[in-house]
TrEMBL record:
Pfam families registered for this protein in UniProt: BNR_2 (PF13088)
Keywords linked to the UniProt accession: Hydrolase
Organism the protein comes from: Prauserella muralis
Entry-linked SUPFAM superfamilies: Sialidases
GO terms for MF: hydrolase activity
The protein, known as: Glycosyl hydrolase
Length: 381
């Protein structure tokens, strides 16, 4: 698409190769050789045991390489990959592994590549589940000035009765002083309902965290002087639909967040849980009556669209600049990709390359990972 004279070029769109029926939860990383890497999970349907982690590189000619399958556990659903460059010859990929739709059984695993993601060592358990509490990730680690690593996480307690639906999930950071060999958890206070903690280092050295909200009301934020101790999350002016977000600090110091500009207030129906389509023996589904009786708790089914970028110049306190990258109805009352029933535009990931361009990857209808290139000036146009 051509731009008007004197205006920034419109974003360019392409789609990564899709080797599986379902593709979801992209995560981008800038590799040491200047290439862009992308990981996601794919298979038949989220929660099923054929869900595995895939990886592709953006080649110099602008095309994505054929995806490489990183993980393959026939007993668990492997989800939410997170990429981290630990050194010139070490690319780490953290991901979760759970039994069926039970996020309360999830553990964090780690796979390592020494050739930029072209091949991978077998994955291993890196952070085991606590007794009755699963551990989940979605956002990349942050390296502190003192050498410690901080991996944002959230924890999924098993309910006293019934199956996991996310009502009691809460956030924390996993802190390592030995390069990731061992981790110590530090909970974020009063964070029940806040998940997908996204830690950002702000100009000046303090830290901002942005959160997805199980209640599908608003993106929440928290602040930290050191990246380890955090304030209780408070709502921002941006809505959230209980779907993932991701933010980065761009070269000019502003914060750009990718998210769905929608919330429970935009929903016409409600799901009982994320995994209500999966039969799981011994794990009863919630009835319609149970779902209706849970106001204020986890809300599933709010539209996952439009896919929006917002910009803050004051460390995440206000977000006056907002532009939609793609619009749609965001229908997500089903995860069905085989019949094309799902129409969400969700789970964004952002990277800025040295040339200043922003790269955005996100789920498109749970059938493919979309990739968008855009100039930051387009946001202000």
């Amino acid at each position: 698409m051509n731009s008007l004279p004197g205006t920034p070029a419109a974003p360019s769109h392409d789609v990564l190769p899709a080797p599986t029926v379902q593709c979801h939860a992209a995560n981008l990383v800038l590799l040491p050789d200047g290439a862009l890497g992308c990981a996601w999970f794919g298979g038949t349907q989220e929660g099923l045991s054929d869900i595995a982690i895939w990886f592709s590189r953006l080649a110099p000619d602008g095309s994505w390489t054929p995806p490489v399958q990183v993980s393959d556990d026939p007993a668990r659903s492997e989800q939410n990959p997170v990429l981290f460059v630990a050194g010139p010859g070490e690319l780490r990929l953290f991901y979760t592994a759970q039994s069926a739709g039970r996020q309360d059984t999830a553990e964090v695993r780690l796979a390592v590549s020494h050739d930029g993601g072209r091949s991978w060592e077998p994955g291993r358990t890196d952070v085991p589940a606590r007794p009755g509490v699963g551990v989940f990730i979605r956002q990349p680690p942050v390296a502190l000035d003192d050498g410690r690593l901080v991996l944002p996480a959230f924890f999924c307690p098993r309910p006293d009765s019934g199956r996991w639906v996310g009502d009691d999930d809460y956030s924390g950071v996993l802190v390592s002083s030995d390069g990731g060999s061992t981790w110590t958890a530090r909970d974020v206070p009063a964070s029940t309902g806040c998940v997908h903690m996204n830690v950002l280092r702000l100009p000046g050295g303090s830290f901002l965290a942005l959160f997805r909200r199980r209640q599908a009301d608003a993106i929440h934020r928290s602040h930290s002087p050191d990246g380890v101790t955090w304030s209780a999350p408070v709502p921002t002016e941006l809505p959230n639909n209980n779907s993932s977000i991701q933010a980065i600090v761009v070269h000019d110091g502003r914060v750009v967040v990718a998210y769905n500009h929608s919330s429970a207030a935009d929903a016409v129906e409600r799901r009982s849980s994320l995994y209500d389509e999966i039969e799981d023996p011994g794990q009863p589904d919630l009835s319609d009556e149970d779902t209706a009786a849970r106001p204020g708790l986890a809300f599933w089914g709010a539209p996952r669209a439009p896919l929006t970028l917002a910009v803050s110049s004051d460390g995440g306190r206000t977000w006056p600049v907002r532009r939609n990258v793609e619009e749609g109805d965001g229908y997500c009352l089903t995860n069905n990709s085989r019949e094309g029933l799902n129409r969400e535009l969700s789970y964004p990931s952002l990277v800025q390359t040295p040339d200043g361009l922003l790269h955005l990857a996100y789920t498109r209808f749970r059938q493919a990972i979309a990739h968008v290139r855009l100039h930051p000036a387009w946001l202000d146009a």
